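step=encode ok
step=design start
structure_in=
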């Protein structure tokens, strides 16, 4: 069959080693199989184009081809296997318990030998977490992972549901910035990884799906749990299709596993590794000391300045009114540039740059059509975009303006950000010049005149502060003199005022303010794709928090599982935030969509400290504020978009072993957020539609 490399992930910062097939035609075994193997480099998407077509490109400009003589047994399924073969396999399995590490000999099945080399080498190269879903075809990988966990070399996380497992792995990868693998058996188990794999690609998160597969002779013939798995995640996610171990010389299998381990630990985005396994599917383990005891190879550190790095120098005194925008996963570099250049900073809440004195919180109001300061909005002449902005329509509109020079900085996920015709330049890094040039002192200068950068920054920050203060949910400061007053009426007035504040019904604004206020740098905050994330983004003050949100595709799927992964990573031994708590803020539909992920702490695994704060408004109220809210009739809107429900969140939480609290007032909410009585709490906050 014809074999080539798969589609490559665009905009990868560094080359990624993959081996792949673009097609895998279900067919009977052939006597000769050829696979192309080689490091495939990043292939940027041309402006306005689509991901590159299949091709071969590696750092040495070469493709290695291994011709293999594949001679699988005539019958490989248990139902068709000869009795002698079945008896031999059973005898070997009984003589050495699977999972027990033994010196490699004839009793080590090729599947187990390959799994040991693949996972052992990945651990040696730095992989620390692996998420596993039980299954028969993947049993060799599972038993090796269990042994690595027993040796203290791997943090193993076992999950029943593959969809949930993939998002759990995504959370681990987001928090650790390391490649995390999720292992499944064949069939529909693989398809359940698709949502998380797409999110990983679009967000640029290193997530690796290692999927066990049936050998070619069992594909396309109606065999159980057998389908065409290579390329199942579509053209965006690169894949590696690995022939069943044992058909090659053992040294070739060994080399292939080593190279795959490099791909797994070096990937900067989504990667699919599909491995076919023939019977016997497991045996006694080989000696893992032979793999783990080897010294890791010398790894080149990523240099601060890379070869062919694109650098743009910005002179803050050049008179061009400039705005810095930080989208999802921008990191702190956006804040650094804004601070050093003295520029206003628009930082989304999950950007990693939502702090500092240059922060402009009310950016949507200031950039919108009804801006209270249109002269600021209209005067913008340049925008520096970091990360992947997704939380407003105002930022894309700004980037698309004809009179604005848009410069996109660094990686923006799996795809380049911004319309190609509107992005003037894409660079890897911004440098700040220190030149002094003549300046105007008037921030309201007409276009074409110089603008004083200090006045420019001051005007943006002041306008934002005024808008935020006007929208504050904080109650008026209490009259402390009334507490010590000798007049009973004064003391009673003070008490009634404080009681009224405590009994105040929770609004969306009060809810997000309370969650943000309760969260500290050693905590983690995970945001669902709901109405609440936008409310928070328009109000959250500057604070250096680690905030996670699946904004690659901004779907509601997998929010709880992602948060559990974030919590497991951030609260692990020796983690700098091991004493913190992970809070999840999401809507009721996002909670119900991922309720199955509440099953935590099973099989002896530690369950992390978590608070899931659910804003329950009875359905999808986010649609009320979109165009459809005005164009659709009330009945149709309710039926197909708002989708009201009457789910009992308390019963759901209790069924999965979580404590449930209903917080309808300010006092109840603040008490729930600061409580340490229970380690896992679902805080249900009823909200008006």
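sequence_out=
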């Amino acid at each position: 069959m014809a074999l080539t490399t798969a589609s490559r992930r665009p905009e990868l910062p560094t080359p990624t080693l993959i081996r792949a097939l673009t097609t895998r035609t279900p067919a009977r075994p052939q006597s000769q199989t050829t696979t192309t193997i080689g490091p495939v480099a990043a292939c940027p998407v041309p402006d306005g184009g689509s991901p590159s077509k299949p091709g071969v490109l590696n750092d040495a400009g070469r493709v290695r081809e291994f011709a293999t003589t594949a001679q699988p047994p005539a019958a490989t399924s248990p139902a068709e296997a000869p009795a002698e073969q079945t008896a031999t396999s059973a005898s070997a399995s009984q003589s050495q318990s699977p999972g027990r590490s033994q010196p490699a000999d004839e009793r080590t099945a090729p599947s187990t030998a390959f799994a040991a080399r693949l996972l052992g080498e990945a651990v040696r190269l730095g992989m620390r977490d692996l998420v596993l879903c039980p299954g028969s075809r993947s049993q060799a990988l599972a038993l090796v992972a269990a042994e690595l966990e027993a040796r203290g070399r791997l943090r193993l996380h076992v999950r029943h549901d593959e969809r949930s497992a993939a998002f759990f792995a995504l959370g681990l990868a987001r928090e650790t910035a390391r490649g995390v693998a999720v292992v499944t058996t064949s069939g529909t188990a693989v398809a359940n990884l698709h949502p998380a794999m797409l999110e990983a690609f679009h967000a640029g998160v290193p997530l690796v799906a290692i999927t066990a597969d049936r050998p070619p002779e069992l594909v396309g013939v109606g065999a159980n749990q057998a389908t065409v798995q290579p390329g199942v995640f579509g053209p965006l996610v690169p894949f590696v299709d690995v022939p069943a171990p044992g058909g090659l010389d053992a040294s070739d299998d060994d080399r292939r596993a080593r190279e795959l381990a490099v791909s797994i630990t070096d990937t900067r985005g989504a990667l699919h590794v599909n491995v076919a396994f023939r019977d016997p599917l497991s045996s006694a383990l080989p000696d893992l000391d032979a793999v783990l005891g080897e010294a890791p190879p010398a790894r080149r550190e990523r240099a601060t300045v890379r070869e062919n790095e694109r650098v743009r120098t910005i002179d803050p005194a050049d008179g061009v009114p400039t705005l810095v925008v930080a989208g999802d996963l921008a990191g702190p570099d956006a804040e650094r540039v804004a601070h050093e250049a003295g520029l206003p900073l628009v930082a989304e809440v999950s950007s990693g740059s939502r702090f500092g004195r240059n922060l402009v919180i009310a950016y949507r109001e200031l950039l919108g059509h009804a801006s209270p300061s249109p002269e600021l909005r209209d005067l913008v002449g340049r925008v520096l975009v970091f990360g992947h902005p997704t939380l407003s329509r105002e930022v894309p509109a700004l980037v698309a303006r004809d009179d604005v020079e848009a410069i996109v900085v660094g990686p923006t996920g799996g795809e380049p950000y911004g319309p190609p015709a509107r992005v003037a330049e894409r660079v890897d890094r911004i440098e700040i010049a220190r030149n002094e040039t003549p300046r105007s002192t008037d921030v309201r200068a007409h276009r074409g005149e110089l603008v004083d950068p200090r006045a420019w920054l001051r005007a943006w920050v002041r306008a934002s502060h005024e808008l935020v203060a006007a929208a504050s949910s904080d109650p008026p400061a209490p009259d402390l003199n009334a507490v010590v007053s000798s007049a009973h009426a004064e003391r009673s007035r003070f008490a009634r005022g404080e009681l009224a504040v405590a009994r105040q019904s929770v609004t969306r604004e009060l809810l997000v303010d309370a969650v943000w206020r309760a969260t500290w740098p050693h905590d983690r905050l995970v945001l669902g794709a709901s109405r609440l994330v936008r409310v928070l983004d328009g109000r959250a003050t500057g604070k250096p928090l680690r905030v996670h949100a699946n904004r690659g595709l901004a779907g509601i799927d997998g929010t709880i599982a992602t948060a559990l992964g974030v919590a497991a990573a951030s609260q692990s031994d020796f983690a700098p935030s091991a004493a913190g708590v992970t809070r999840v803020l999401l809507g009721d539909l996002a909670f119900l969509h991922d309720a199955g992920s509440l099953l935590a702490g099973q099989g002896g695994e530690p369950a992390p400290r978590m608070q899931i704060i659910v804003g329950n408004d009875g359905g999808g109220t986010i649609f009320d504020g979109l165009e459809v809210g005005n164009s659709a009739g009330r009945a149709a809107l309710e039926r197909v978009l708002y989708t009201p429900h009457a789910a009992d969140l308390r019963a759901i939480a209790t069924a999965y072993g979580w404590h449930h609290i209903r917080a309808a007032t300010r006092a109840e909410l603040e008490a729930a957020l600061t409580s340490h009585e229970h380690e896992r709490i679902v805080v249900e906050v009823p909200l008006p539609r």
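step=design ok
step=annotate ok -> The radius of gyration is 28 Å.
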